[in-house]
Write a sequence for this structure.
């Protein structure tokens, strides 16, 4: 029995479909197969229902993945070794310590706990000698992460589920506590089934946050109790909505998969659609030419100078937040950052209501914005770099314009989530989409490849103290040019690349990672998610053969 | 009753989902709906079975499209007008002239006739007064094109199929006889069902050629009688193949939809995979480093200096051609064009077999290539600009490297099909795909938008005489980074843009076209093809509102 320590940047055996790569991993070279009666046992009294369900799903994946190893013979040359391999009878899950108070928290509860308090680490031991495998963690959330890893250890050969790499010893925990994916359901609508399928896929690569950009200027699909006119008049159609029941379904589904759902309702910009139901609260609603007022059509932003509007907005945000269980709520603010302040200014300057309120109150736009944000029921807002907006100390700032802004934000003392357009925007590089402009380019050209995000350094140019404020990062899918039709193929596997960056930590090597990412793509497809091809299958079956230097 | 002549560059009524736009079209403003008993009649004795089937499909689309008009109220404000509209009882198809010899040719037969002899024009009259509609053509192929147009005239409002634009008078015929789509099934494999769905979609926009790049260096999915070892050893898997029965199915399916299937088997480059079964015929098979021998891995090309290889290749191509019914067969040649000749040279110089044959025969590579091409059973090969290869006069040259090469090819006197990478490659702009190269860009950056192709001028810088040699053009999907997962969303609606360019002719205006293209996207989705979003739905429902100047 030989154990070799493998670090995340080293070349793994030609096929080993772990994604993200565990932070501590050692493997052997002994074949092992799942016994016909293989079972997953939960050695926890009265286990939470979502852990029981997760075990059931894990068993389903083991039975149904049927992923053949990605080498030319797809495993045929190992058939003899597989047939003669010892059988793994079971995997047993247990908590390393008795929980305080004796009651075990569910995955769902742990998934939405304060972000820096979550415990996602685990240890997993798969012996080569036919004795049972053991998964231990300090939380059910950690057990769920370990279960996910266990499900990636196996290949199929003619109905036998096997590994060639036993014994396997994993001690794993994430480099960063925030690993997200942002979906915009306002530019184009996505049915609940698409969101749930995406949540499943996210969980497979240990993403723990769905940053749900649920409404925007173009449509308001969220049905908010007490404010239902917003969706009645602002959704694309009566069926293109998320009811409170849908939201609960999504939030529950996500939490059971270790994922916190952070809703985002942008303010004060990106709010044109509110004018359909509440015209009194929106300045410059659908004003023309739109390009003078907004970065994309339609124009319109909250009349922050109006006390009635501030009260309306605070009440609406509070009601919306009540639909979710996350500790965070994003109120955006991306129209008021430094680079776009002129846009707001241009609108407000021309809005009589705003000018009247400003002169009567003696307030500035900045103080008005402070009023609004302090009323908002959130502990997380998007960045306001050069605007001296007073934010709560526990605010998380998402740096989206450019990775070059990270250092400046770090200087403010706020915690940071990397969301930079120049690395993590999945929509870039598909040309301009506004009409009447044949030569238009994507504003954030070029296309962001998985490799580009994978080699991102989250702490570049930061001091050690500043680096500690980096909570993680996320991929983002803005949907001006996307919809259900290309959701899977546009998102996957690129969002998985970012997931590994923030789980395993920076320093990954694309050459070593590519064969694993191919296998993750093929596994996604086996599970019903249409992940996109990275290369010709000829390359996928020959690790390294399509490297530039091969 | 008011008729207004509308040309293809003028702004149509805000919603009118014709694509490609007919070359002659006049519309009115009278509402009209299909009667409950609406029928399509074929006033032709013993009509061909494929015409009868096409009529059946057209009736299915009329019943099932259920496409609501793309305006904010989706047609609600027209409900009264629709309810009170006269009913169209029928559409009657007839041939304008008695066919020679009295027997009517099938769509399938006409679809594969010599390209410049095909008759695709038709006239379509939809009166506003409740009398029947009339479709006339000089061929069943023309009737099929007219049926396709008829199917695009209608919207749905609560179960009623209606138009607001009667009377409608169309006199339509294509600007160019070749309107194609190329699919590469070698880099990644596509099941037959994907190809048939794509053929359906192609027929909806009157594309008449599937240029099927069936095999390449990476895989050989085509099962060729007498040469079955090629696919047995060269396909990605035993199930990733096209059997003779599959090919017949595809060719028949396409022909019945007015589409000729032109197979392409590249020679002498892009043939590495042949070495799996016939190593003796391939020089530099999988030679390393691949970048010294080929533009992408794996390296390998036919040993043209060997008489045995020439005979093998000619026999194999002839057997392959026997599976198809097209008058054309493409043997590629894109590794021997000017810009890549050094690649061949580099390989052949190092290949002992080639050097021995060359010195014993006294032949040059060019004369050897002539030998090969004269043996090939084709009348169409890809371009060989600076290589003095003797091609048959009826060869069609596909200009793929750059649109800048068109004039030079036109000077050679060959007919031209526009396939330029800088306008029509659908795969560009997704980053580099070779491994170990994080900063790699797509070689044909940037992404080609629908607008970019739409405003292409097929006769730019050509004399009138040269312009006559332009047969048309096509979109192309090379599949290094594509597969079944993104086939629909990558291809559509961009391939439709090119289809209109070559049917309606150049000079189209993207501003006027965009609302129609949105409707074609939505209609595609109603018919099960996952066409990609061009804009937020907010824009799709408000023609013109997202123009840069709106």
């Amino acid at each position: 029995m030989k154990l070799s320590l493998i670090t995340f940047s080293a070349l793994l055996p030609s096929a080993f479909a772990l994604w993200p790569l565990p932070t501590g991993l050692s493997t052997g070279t002994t074949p092992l197969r799942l016994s016909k009666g293989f079972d997953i046992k939960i050695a926890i009294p009265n286990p939470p229902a979502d852990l029981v369900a997760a075990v059931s799903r894990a068993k389903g994946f083991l039975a149904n993945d049927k992923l053949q190893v990605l080498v030319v013979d797809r495993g045929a040359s190992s058939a003899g070794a597989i047939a003669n391999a010892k059988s793994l009878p079971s995997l047993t899950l247990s908590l390393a310590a008795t929980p305080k108070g004796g009651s075990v928290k569910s995955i769902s509860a742990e998934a939405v706990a304060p972000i820096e308090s979550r415990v996602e680490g685990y240890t997993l031991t798969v012996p080569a000698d036919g004795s049972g495998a053991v998964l231990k963690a300090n939380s059910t959330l950690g057990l769920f992460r370990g279960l996910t890893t266990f499900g990636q250890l196996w290949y199929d050969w003619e109905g036998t589920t096997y590994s060639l790499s036993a014994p396997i010893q994993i001690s794993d925990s994430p480099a960063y506590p925030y690993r997200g994916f942002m979906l915009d359901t306002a530019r184009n609508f996505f049915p609940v089934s698409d969101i749930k399928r995406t949540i499943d896929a996210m969980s497979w690569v240990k993403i723990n946050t769905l940053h749900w950009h649920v409404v925007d200027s173009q449509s308001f699909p969220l049905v908010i109790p007490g404010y239902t006119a917003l969706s009645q008049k602002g959704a694309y159609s009566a069926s293109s909505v998320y009811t409170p029941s849908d939201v609960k379904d999504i939030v529950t589904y996500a939490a059971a998969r270790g994922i916190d759902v952070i809703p985002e309702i942008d303010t004060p910009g990106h709010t044109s659609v509110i004018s359909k139901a509440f015209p009194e609260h929106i300045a410059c609603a659908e004003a023309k030419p739109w390009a003078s007022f907004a970065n994309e059509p339609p124009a319109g932003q909250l009349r922050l100078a109006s006390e009635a509007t501030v009260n309306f907005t605070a009440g609406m945000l509070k009601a919306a937040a009540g639909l979710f269980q996350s500790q965070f709520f994003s109120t955006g603010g991306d129209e008021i950052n430094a680079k776009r302040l002129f846009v707001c200014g241009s609108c407000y300057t021309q809005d009589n209501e705003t000018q009247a309120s400003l002169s009567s109150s003696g307030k500035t736009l900045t103080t008005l914005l402070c009023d609004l944000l302090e009323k908002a029921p959130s502990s997380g807002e998007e960045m306001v770099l050069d605007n001296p907006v007073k934010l709560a100390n526990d605010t998380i700032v998402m740096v989206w314009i450019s990775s070059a802004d990270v250092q400046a934000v770090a200087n403010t003392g706020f915690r940071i989530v990397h969301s930079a357009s120049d690395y993590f925007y999945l929509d870039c590089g598909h040309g301009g989409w506004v009409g009447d402009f044949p030569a238009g380019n994507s504003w954030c050209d070029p296309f962001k490849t998985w490799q580009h995000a994978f080699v991102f350094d989250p702490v570049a140019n930061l001091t050690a103290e500043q680096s500690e404020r980096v909570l993680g990062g996320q991929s983002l899918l803005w949907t001006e040019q996307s919809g259900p039709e290309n959701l899977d193929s546009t998102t996957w596997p690129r969002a998985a690349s970012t997931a590994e960056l923030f789980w395993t930590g920076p320093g990954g090597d694309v050459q070593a990672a590519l064969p694993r990412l191919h296998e993750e793509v093929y596994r996604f497809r086996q599970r019903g998610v249409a992940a996109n091809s990275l290369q010709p299958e000829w390359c996928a079956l020959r690790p390294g053969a399509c490297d530039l230097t091969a």
Notes: Confidence is low (pLDDT under 50) at residues 1-15, 334-346, 373-389 of chain A. Chain A touches chain B through 73 residues (CB under 8 Å).
